[in-house]
Amino acid sequence: MTTEVRVPTLGESVTEATVATWFKKPGDAVAVDEMLCELETDKVTVEVPSPVAGTLNEIVAAEGDTVGVDALLANIAEGSTANATPAAPAPKAAPASSGGSVDVMVPTLGESVTEATVSTWFKKVGDSVAQDEMLCELETDKVSVEVPAPAAGTITEILAPEGSTVDAGGKLAVMSAGAGAAAPAPTPDAPQPTVAKTGADVEDAPSAKKAMAEAGISRDQVTGTGRDGRAMKEDVASAIAAAAAPPAPTAATPRAPVAADDASREERVKMTRLRQTIARRLKDSQNTAAMLTTYNEVDMGAVMELRNEYKDLFLKKHGVKLGFMSFFTKACVHALREVPEVNAEIDGTDIVYKNFVHMGIAAGTPTGLVVPVIRDADAMGFADIEKAIAEKGARARDGKLSMAEMQGGTFTISNGGVYGSLMSSPILNPPQSGILGMHKIQDRPMAIKGQVVIRPMMYLALSYDHRIVDGKGAVTFLVRIKEALEDPRRLLMDL
Question: In the prediction, which pLDDT does 485 show?
């Protein structure tokens, strides 16, 4: 028997979506409610689960296709899925009274993310847990992912200890379903996760231990980058590659010698995956783009007066505070329409112009800089922009942003002024071609109509990719933002 997989209801006023990712391919066995594909609309990302257990026979709508509500996506031949291995979600929990075994799986990590590091286990073997109680936290290149318990029961085995690298769809632990279920005592034949111990009593990833044994290298030849200095599989690969590589050029500057007294007062902490990714992407941006920065300044008096006049009424009607970011977002949208190359990107020998604005808003968090994206900001009003900024800012600080919420941006705004920065040169967020740096509003004496007056001034900085944006376009862009902010009525009249 064949079952059709169709596009679900996408939401009010949403009539079509784009097939973003297929998690399965024809011939793959699937379980009930296992995620088959992900659809992307102009507002949300929608996951499509399998309606039955069986085998995926045919994919009708390929990745990149645009589909309407109730359109046919695929066909599934119903049947046994005993050999199916779910790719992302944890299987449905057995009834509490059954005492069955439930696997805890690695959830979907996001587009193009295939692995994560187990950073923290909140539970240990033998602990009883409630359904949806947090079991552990995974760390990817971008975000931290919490893994909830798929059912109430007891943890019987942890397969991926802290510091180990796990693949998307991999197994983290095994639970015995049922409230108060006792953890079975380990038997001699039961496989137990093995870990290597360093002199500092740090547990290495099992995959790293195996790789070291196969390569015949010792632990002291490997520099661990995992949690607390744990050796990961990729660290072993790096050590092997370093041993085979020719000596590094002597031009590299080694770390200066440190006095013994000073060394005892230092603290060495491994970079998190997020910080390593930030470092790599920023350096890649410098190495790839022909980056240049141009500056201007804007008198913020008109915006401040308008904000003070309407902020109470705005809050009462829309339930969100009126800030400066919505003015800058609207001003950038206005300027990007006139200088579209700042909203474009380079793809090989092509320039891809975007007829929409997905605005990235850089946000500092305790773990590093992230850039949540406000999609279709060019179609939003002040209130919608402020609400989106507030909601995504809170999710960023809590580490709850998904990968999808940080992808697809076409232009970025970075507000260093909230930290007191008076002037800076922001670095591009590739593959974008422009980023606007906002700075501190500071009273300065200005010459206006032959008189020296004190005005609230802000320096603006536009960093841009000179391969695609010329100096004239960059200067024009900043001038248009300056004009729009110094006379906000221009935004209403589209001037």
Answer: 93
Angle at which helices 301-318 and 382-397 cross, to 10°: 80
Task: Return the SS3 of 459.
Answer: strand
Query: Which one of 65, 167, 312, 470 is the catalytic residue?
Result: 470
Indicate if 466 belongs to the active site: yes
pTM of the model: 0.50
Which tokens is 432 given? 């974008």
Of the residues 65, 167, 312, 466, only one is catalytic, namely 466
Residue 334 among the catalytic residues: no
pLDDT in tens, 33-89: 888 888 877 666 778 888 888 898 889 998 888 888 888 899 998 875 444 444 444
Pick the CATH number of 198-239 from 3.20.20.70, 4.10.320.10, 1.20.58.100, 3.40.710.10: 4.10.320.10
Segments in the chain below pLDDT 50: 81-98, 180-200, 248-252
Give me the sign of the Cα torsion angle 392, 397, 401, 407.
positive
Q: Which long-range contacts (CB under 8 A, 24 or more apart) does 466-470 make?
A: 466/289, 466/290, 466/291, 466/292, 467/289, 467/290, 467/346, 468/341, 468/344, 468/345, 468/346, 468/351, 468/433, 469/339, 469/341, 469/342, 469/433, 469/434, 470/341
For residue 444, what pLDDT is reported?
93
Could you say which of 2.102.10.10, 3.90.1300.10, 2.40.50.100, 3.40.50.300 is the CATH number of the domain covering 2-78?
Answer: 2.40.50.100
